[in-house]
């Protein structure tokens, strides 16, 4: 996953329905004494349980549910370790995309489209989400239910809620999870998921589960672990609430004309303007135009494929705030209904470490291109500064730290 820890945390803070299926890149040594923090959570856990019980009771959780679940909650050390990890390297677009949009997933998606066609069509009619997108989210989140996570969700949430870092957010999720277990009579053993509490086929956090999960198979429970129908309908309901535009695509791959002004990366313009600027469909055809805006995205810089994202691209990012994720969902959806591979394959590029990005930011600052405080993360400020530097050296100003840029800065990028 491309989301670095900080961005992921900001997502967790901002939104309660984040889906936390995180790939496992290489991690540097722990910068803080995690053992000490685990100890603190363990020491404070009895007090935390007391506080959870009071809050749960005040929010309608029955004494029975509290007694059944709270007494058995345990601190999961691994959850704190995972929460504190710092990815050493950023992933490349190819590294991310090629692992997620695989032939296996495309074929499985096509097979499931046949298998569930009638039901999926009924969801499209009711919620406005085309079948291929529902399948793409399902494939991205859990490999179509193949891996839904094995961490005990109530324990994980209680651990994170007792931990100081994001206590408020996870306390709310824990109480909601208790309400769900009470409402649907889910035993604790059933409630498994990611280390951060995302559950079932579609990896919903408890708050998303409570707000958007639906019972589509009619057994009286919205069951995102055992019912494929419930899970697909819940994803459709969620996407509708996130603002999915019924008649629009997610976006598409585009070809840029020779002499393109790369400073327009990341800009949102009416489609007709992009067409006038010479953007074409990936097959070379004239860009179809509707009364819509689109944002230009080059996830691997000028050497890689280019995309324009429509309104639904932003909707996908409300599910998971990552361009890599949104492009992968959109392209997987296209492939499931028969599209071919990208016209321009994601290029194999050098992974950069956070340390290398920090050095790059320091160098930009030294040269008078304000990259902000060096933190090893290329945010919009750093990219802007990088573009200005690239332009000053006659390089393509795509804000992407390729080898030529590292060379021009006189620093090592490998
Ligand atoms: Ca059901």
Write up what this structure looks like.
This protein is mainly alpha-helical. Among the domains are: 5-88 and 148-242, Helicase, Ruva Protein, domain 3 (Orthogonal Bundle); 354-409, no CATH class. The chain is built from 18 helices and seven strands. It has helices at residues 5-14, 34-58, 63-70, 77-84, 93-100, 103-115, 117-127, 131-142, 153-162, 167-184, 206-212, 228-242, 271-276, 311-319, 323-336, 354-366, 380-392, 403-409; strands spanning 151-152, 192-193, 251-255, 268-270, 280-281, 293-297, 306-309. The strands form two sheets. Strands 4-6-7-3-5 form a five-stranded antiparallel beta sheet. A two-stranded antiparallel ribbon has the order 1-2. Strand 6 (293-297) and strand 7 form a beta hairpin. Helix 5 packs parallel to helix 15, helix 9 runs antiparallel to helix 10 and helix 10 (167-184) crosses helix 11 (206-212). The longest helix is centred in the N-terminal third of the chain and has 25 residues, at 34-58. It is globular, with a radius of gyration of 23 Å. The site of calcium ion has 8 residues, from loops. Calcium ion is lined by residues 215, 217, 219, 221-223, 227, 230.
């Amino acid at each position: 996953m491309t989301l670095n820890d900080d961005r992921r945390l900001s997502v967790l803070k901002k939104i309660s329905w984040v889906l936390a299926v995180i790939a496992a890149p290489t991690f540097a040594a722990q910068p803080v004494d995690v053992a000490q923090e685990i100890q603190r959570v363990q020491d404070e856990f009895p007090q935390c349980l007391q506080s959870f019980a009071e809050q749960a009771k005040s929010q309608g959780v029955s004494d029975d549910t509290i007694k059944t679940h709270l007494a058995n909650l345990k601190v999961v050390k691994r959850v704190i370790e995972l929460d504190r990890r710092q990815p050493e390297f950023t992933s490349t677009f190819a590294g991310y995309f090629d692992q997620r949009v695989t032939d296996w997933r495309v074929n499985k998606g096509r097979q499931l489209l046949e298998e569930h066609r009638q039901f999926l069509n009924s969801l499209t009619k009711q919620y406005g989400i085309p079948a291929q997108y529902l399948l793409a989210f399902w494939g991205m989140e859990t490999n179509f239910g193949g891996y839904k996570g094995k961490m005990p969700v109530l324990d994980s949430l209680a651990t994170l809620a007792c931990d100081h870092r994001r206590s408020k957010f996870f306390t709310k999720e824990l109480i909601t999870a208790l309400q769900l277990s009470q409402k649907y009579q889910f035993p604790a053993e059933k409630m498994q998921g990611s280390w951060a509490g995302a559950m079932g086929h579609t990896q919903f956090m408890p708050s998303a589960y409570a707000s958007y999960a639906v019972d589509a198979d009619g057994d009286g429970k919205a069951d995102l672990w055992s019912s494929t129908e419930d899970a697909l309908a819940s994803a459709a309901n969620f996407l509708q609430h996130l603002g999915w535009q019924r008649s629009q695509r997610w976006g598409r791959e585009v070809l840029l004309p020779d002499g393109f002004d790369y400073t327009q990366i990341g800009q949102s313009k009416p489609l007709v303007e992009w067409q006038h600027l010479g953007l074409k469909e990936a097959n070379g055809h004239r860009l179809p135009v509707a009364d819509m805006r689109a944002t230009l995205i080059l996830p691997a810089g000028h050497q890689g494929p280019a995309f324009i994202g429509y309104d639904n691209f932003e909707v996908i990012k409300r599910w998971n705030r990552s361009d890599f994720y949104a492009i992968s969902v959109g392209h997987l959806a296209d492939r499931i209904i028969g599209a071919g591979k990208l016209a321009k394959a994601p290029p194999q590029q050098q992974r950069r470490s956070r340390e290398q990005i920090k050095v790059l930011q320091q160098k930009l600052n030294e040269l008078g291109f304000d990259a902000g405080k060096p933190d090893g993360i290329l945010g919009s400020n750093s990219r802007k500064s990088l573009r200005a530097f690239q332009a000053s050296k006659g390089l393509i100003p795509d804000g992407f730290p390729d080898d030529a840029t590292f060379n021009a800065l006189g620093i090592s990028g490998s």
